[in-house]
Amino acid sequence: MNPETLQNYAKLLVRKGINVQPGQNVVILAELDQPEFVTQCVEECYAAGAAKVVVDWTHLPITRSHSEHRTLEVMSRLEKWEMEKWQWQLETLPAKLYLDSEDPDGLSGIDQDKYTKAQQAIRTAIKPIRDRMENRYAWCIAAVPGKAWAKKMFPHFPAEHATEELWNAILYASRAWGDPIANWDAHNEELISRCSYLNGLGLESLHYTASNGTDFTVGLLEDGRFCGGMEKTLSGVPFNPNIPSEEIFTSPRSGDAEGILYASKPLSWQGEVIDRFWVRFAQGRVVDVGAEKNESLLRQMVSMDAGAAKLGEVALIPHDSPISNSGLLFYNTLFDENASCHVALGKGFSNCLRGYENLTQEQATARGINDSLIHVDFMIGTSDLNILGRTRDGRDVPIFTQGNWAE
Amino acid sequence: MNPETLQNYAKLLVRKGINVQPGQNVVILAELDQPEFVTQCVEECYAAGAAKVVVDWTHLPITRSHSEHRTLEVMSRLEKWEMEKWQWQLETLPAKLYLDSEDPDGLSGIDQDKYTKAQQAIRTAIKPIRDRMENRYAWCIAAVPGKAWAKKMFPHFPAEHATEELWNAILYASRAWGDPIANWDAHNEELISRCSYLNGLGLESLHYTASNGTDFTVGLLEDGRFCGGMEKTLSGVPFNPNIPSEEIFTSPRSGDAEGILYASKPLSWQGEVIDRFWVRFAQGRVVDVGAEKNESLLRQMVSMDAGAAKLGEVALIPHDSPISNSGLLFYNTLFDENASCHVALGKGFSNCLRGYENLTQEQATARGINDSLIHVDFMIGTSDLNILGRTRDGRDVPIFTQGNWAE
């Protein structure tokens, strides 16, 4: 890969993604796949004035080994120093850059029941801290190629060629060509104007239908708002939490959803792929699921806690969008969710409420933003998806027609 | 590299090196160079019954970036969670496996003054904990190839070939051929019988002379002992702290050393190579040093603290030994020190005192074991080194003649 292109990509992630401020700490979370690029990101953070950059490396084959051999008790325990590290994050609010390169099948075949229980325990332990950090720090999820991931996407290429192809796909989807920062300024403008249009409609609900059987209605909050692209921390620092990001999204009214959604793409969760699945809602909660592959994992997911069976997000992405048009299936939510309308089970976003700046997490929950230990997106967009909006003043407004924006 | 050979090497490190006990924690410290081998070591630890294995990854180019861009104040600070992690180690005494693969020149050109000061602060902060852990946990330093290290050793080979050569050199030096565990049982026997012989002599001092100008005398402790190969934790777990290890060593009487030592090999310290140097002692302390390369770094080293100018170790290795006979210069202390007689500046080993089991660190220091923030070995062995021992009953006993054991 051209070094200048990678340098520009690193700069995009550091300046537009987490937007490092002078004197700030930064935490970068990465697999071992691209040490040179991670080093470039570290350099860019310091160039932006970071005081201290900390890289937390993980390696999925070792995560697999842990999950195979540690007891549930050991897996569920957060050591005191691990809690102190979270406490340090709460106190110093480092910007967090997640560089995803995971093998979508990297944990397939492990004891998912044990793994899910351990995740449940650990997420429960850190939730109070994470809740208190919400909206207060800049974060960004982006991707770099991993060998196994590249091989899954491009199985007919030799390893090195597949990795190069995946770099190309990531950089294209992330608008990291030419002048990436200018690209993102323009892109953010477009997303903001789309949000303004939707927020002006006063929508009360969305009704989804498609030829695959999807027939689903979700209620929206009166003081909810659609967001997309750039966000701001409570202290006013703009950042882009996802690169790429094509979505306009909101958190719906927790507990207000009826009907059935058919997934249009596979979903990699906890290192395993769930495929050809559907989810049925009644009175806002998941009441049944089915999957041709890994149905039991899907059932574990929706039973993680009370909020895991309710929606935290609905997101709108035209079928005619750059990632979708590439025709690639990434088996990675960051990309696949940005190629397709999706919804997320679990925790919602309090900043999708007008006036969220003055609300605690508890208050946001009380106003209808779902709460949970998880937030898992799954894709429902198809080329024939129609979405009809119903406004609070009783009008029907086509939002999506045949997979794309109606307006 | 043959997968079975690597598997056997991993097993050697886990079973003979740190000798993982059922239910124990393990910490592995590694650069990013050999993730597959590190994964094998993790698997071997769990196979030996480890409860929890934690891998701490570092990447020297990022360490360089930190040291270039962090302020001295930031570099010198241990966060509370980092101290808590040391505290966790003190409380649970995990076995520690260090997998060295560092580029010997990886930090060349950085501000060594700043780096040394920061190291001084950090080592001072954790010293009380490390002192309390001494002799209570199993540890092992071993090596795996890193690309830059391989390239330095085999500059004329292409990268992949150089790495393969370095694997061969590491595995050969580490006696990791055939049945490595049987090799080490036999090797430990030999080292122990050599120690018995030396400990029976009742040595009071050693006098070193060689044609390069070395003319040096060091005093030994009356209740000192020579050690080599396998050691035991205070709770009785045998382990091998260095793989490879060819040395018979002891901690001399702190403050009892006179004369000049000429280094016979370069020394990589803090990511830079110090070369063609000498160290002069008077009344047990370094009073002058000289080096053709990186003299100022050498001066920083001996001024790290009061104990850094005194000896913590003298080690005897015949010139005719496997690593030495390979003719390879590793630019890595683990190997070069095991190919050559050496001494170490800085902290000594309390377990080189008879009856150390009942001594605190302070008591060991009071009895003449040197104390310091550092422990840095440098090589003084040559093919014409003579070492004459003087016994407490006034006899002169040749210990080394022309670079090899006299007896």
Describe what this molecule looks like in 3D.
2 copies of one chain form a homodimer. Chain A is of the alpha+beta class and 407 residues long. Chain A has helices at residues 3-17, 35-47, 60-69, 72-76, 80-92, 112-133, 147-153, 159-173, 180-201, 295-302, 322-325, 333-336, 361-366, and strands at 25-31, 52-58, 95-100, 139-143, 203-209, 215-219, 231-232, 238-239, 248-250, 257-262, 267-269, 272-282, 285-293, 311-316, 342-346, 375-379, 386-391, 396-401, 404-405. In chain A, the strands form 4 sheets. In chain A, strands 5, 6, 10, 11, 12, 13, 17, 18 and 19 form a 9-stranded antiparallel beta sheet that branches. In chain A, strands 2-1-3-4 form a 4-stranded parallel beta sheet. Chain A has a 4-stranded antiparallel beta sheet with strand order 9-14-15-16. In chain A, helix 5 (80-92) packs parallel to helix 6. The longest helix of chain A has 22 residues, at 112-133. Chain A is globular. The model of chain A has no long low-confidence stretch (mean pLDDT 96). Chain A binds chain B through residues 32, 35-36, 38-39, 42-43, 46, 50-53, 55, 57, 59, 61-62, 65-66, 68-71, 74, 79-82, 84-85, 87-88, and chain B through 32, 35-36, 38-39, 42-43, 46, 50-53, 55, 57, 59, 61-62, 65-66, 68-71, 74, 79-82, 84-85, 87-88.
The average pLDDT of chain A is 96
As a percent range, the share of helical residues of chain A equals: 25-40%
How many strands appear in the DSSP assignment of chain A? 19
Poorly predicted tracts of residues of chain A:
none
Main β-sheet of chain A, in a few words? 9 strands, antiparallel
Determine Rg of chain A (CA atoms, Å). Answer: 20 Å
Largest interface: A-B, 32 and 32 residues
Strand residue content of chain A = 25-35%
- Cα(first) to Cα(last) distance of chain A is 39 Å
Multimer state: homodimer
The structure class of chain A reads alpha+beta
| Shape type of chain A | globular
Count of helical regions of chain A: 13
